[in-house]
From TrEMBL, chain A:
<keyword id="KW-1003">Cell membrane</keyword>
<keyword id="KW-0472">Membrane</keyword>
<feature type="transmembrane region" description="Helical">
    <location>
        <begin position="358"/>
        <end position="382"/>
    </location>
</feature>
<protein>
    <recommendedName>
        <fullName>Metabolite permease</fullName>
    </recommendedName>
</protein>
<feature type="transmembrane region" description="Helical">
    <location>
        <begin position="297"/>
        <end position="321"/>
    </location>
</feature>
<keyword id="KW-1133">Transmembrane helix</keyword>
<comment type="similarity">
    <text>Belongs to the ABC-4 integral membrane protein family.</text>
</comment>
<feature type="transmembrane region" description="Helical">
    <location>
        <begin position="402"/>
        <end position="424"/>
    </location>
</feature>
<dbReference type="InterPro" id="IPR050250">
    <property type="entry name" value="Macrolide_Exporter_MacB"/>
</dbReference>
From TrEMBL, chain B:
<feature type="domain" description="ABC transporter">
    <location>
        <begin position="2"/>
        <end position="230"/>
    </location>
</feature>
<protein>
    <submittedName>
        <fullName>ABC transporter ATP-binding protein</fullName>
    </submittedName>
</protein>
<dbReference type="InterPro" id="IPR003593">
    <property type="entry name" value="AAA+_ATPase"/>
</dbReference>
<dbReference type="GO" id="GO:0005524">
    <property type="term" value="F:ATP binding"/>
</dbReference>
<dbReference type="GO" id="GO:0016887">
    <property type="term" value="F:ATP hydrolysis activity"/>
</dbReference>
<dbReference type="InterPro" id="IPR017871">
    <property type="entry name" value="ABC_transporter-like_CS"/>
</dbReference>
<dbReference type="InterPro" id="IPR015854">
    <property type="entry name" value="ABC_transpr_LolD-like"/>
</dbReference>
<keyword id="KW-0813">Transport</keyword>
<dbReference type="GO" id="GO:0005886">
    <property type="term" value="C:plasma membrane"/>
</dbReference>
Amino acid sequence: MKLKDQFRFILQNMKKNKIRVFMTVLATAMGCAFLIVLASVAFGLHDSILRDTLENRTINEVEVYGGEEGQGITDQDIAKFEELEGVRAVTRQKSVQQEAIYSVDDFQAYAPTVAAHFPSEIASGAELAEGRLPEAADEVVVGHHFIPLLTPTEGNPDELYNEDGLIKEELQFDENVIGQIFTMEIAKTDGDQETTEEFDVKIVGVMKAPGREWEWDQHVYITDDLLDELETFTGTPGAALMDPSTFEDVSAEEVPYDQVTVIASDLESVKNVSEQLEDQNYMSYSIVNEMEQMNTLFTIAKAGLIFIGTIAILIASIGIYNTMTMAVTERAPDIGIMKAIGASPKVIKRIFILESSYIGLIGAAIGIAAAYVISILVNFGLPLILEAAFDEEMPAGLQFSSIPPLLIVIAVVICLLVTILSGLRPAKRATEIDVLKAMRREI
Amino acid sequence: MIDINQLSHHFTLGKKGDQTSLSVLENISFHVRAGEIVTIVGRSGSGKSTLLNLISGFIRPTQGEIIIQNQKVSEFDESEFAEFRLQHMGFIFQNFQLIPSMTAYQNIELPLILKGISEQARKKMTLDMLKKVRLEDFSGHYPSELSGGQQQRVSIARALVLEPPLILADEPTGSLDSETEEDLLRFIQELNKEMGITFLIITHDDEVARIGDRTITLADGKMVESVVFS
Ligand SMILES: Nc1ncnc2c1ncn2[C@@H]1O[C@H](COP(=O)(O)OP(=O)(O)OP(=O)(O)O)[C@@H](O)[C@H]1O
Ligand SMILES: [Mg+2]
């Protein structure tokens, strides 16, 4: 018997008892929708939190804080990191431990200053918007927001800024910044008295804007040689504004880096790099550590909710079992006749299993459609309700319910499995119908 | 065509622990040649239907073997027997056994569907068959909308549509009046002559027994006579 004919047969049979079939489909659809909506909350919140986490950090970065006893990272360690498997670059920065004042013509800015290792910064993915990397000791690169935050020294300080917190367009420094010589004012103290010194720096490049809109890069990136000069002047490591007599000779001692970031070549290597660092007794942190715990937690939550949803489908399956049992009983004489003229038990069984799985499939389809509608309503309505109730704005992009294809697949598989299982016994009963009894209308 | 060897059958009656055995057929042996019309007669309760049900595979013999077209069908399992019935046997029952929710057309088409014949071929074969039993005008009628004779013709059409070499009939004229019976008998003889179909017919009726080439008489589960007509 061809599948197409079996299918036609089923449709004919189902038409004979539309209301009963409809009710069974409805129950299945409700169970399926319940499962999907329930689990979609775990999927939605997981997505939201994951997205939030990923937005705040770059995922393939591993920050290294230091050795096991808190000792700082020096060039010797950096060399080791660069040897590790799956490492793309190791960026390292030493901050100037005071806020330097940069000025040119009638403009001035306090800017954080760091000495960076430029080749590794570039290797890590940082890019210049214009200009080039420093070559001479007094050449510097500035962050994207350095120029828009250069403050005019004249004019009313209250009227300088626009609503974005930047200097108003018409008041900004509007000359080409590349090649400009700025003076950099660094202070030092000998315990009681503070003196300042001016260093000339030449801007040779501007960094690209940071990837995320809310991030500001106002830094001035200087060379190691310039930092050495500053340290010699202040007599303190990192040119800190402290009494130099408390330190030994700064030029002789190696100053550790403030910030060392190992960039893995891809997401898969992050974990590997993290583990290698741990093996070598470095303290490090990467977002992957945190994500793993979170993922485990959410996987458990998802499985739990799917399990609860499955119970709903199991309840619906009682309806399918009932419907199929009644269908078999009702059609017993017909089944007997069919067997008598040569329908094999296999065919009979297949027809009934096909019928129950068809009910399951339609139920799943309707359930999926309903779940999508409910999910949209929840995502749209729940924030409004919560906002009204708690008088607090929900974080943007928070999604309560999300239905990924995987969830649909899981729901359909569970639905089909349960419906086929519940159709199995009635189908078996159909195959066991005795031809002679059925033809005598004894069943 | 059919070889019955030492066939015995008994039914087990009663509940477990308190069972009695009822012997219905004892040591039946006979042979039916291809193209023969063989009738089976005997008093009520003599075991005629049981014999036919054994040959049809609806029940399994307690002893002995049944060979049809050189196949030992008494050793078939249920699926094999079903397949064999579809391929080699047609059935005519006393009370027609049509599916009430199907039209005459659909009832006749059923064996073709079971065999997996394509829709196009099916249509032609079914319509041909309807014509053959002179029911072209009743193809859309449900069994409840047909007379007994018409219903019996539908059931004959269903039995013949796959052109089986063997047709088994248990009191085919039992529910028909004498005129319709005449019609049916003539039709059976026609099919036998034209298509060489072998018939095994159970009957109470002397009229029916007369069309047979041979008559097997059963009494109390034993074969008492096998009369050969000229
Ligand atoms: N399923 C069964 N279980 C128990 N006994 C049965 C069963 N079927 C038939 N019998 C018994 O077997 C015997 C023969 O029955 P069978 O139906 O073969 O007779 P028959 O010759 O066809 O009679 P009739 O001419 O009335 O149709 C009867 O005594 C009947 O009671
Ligand atoms: Mg009988």
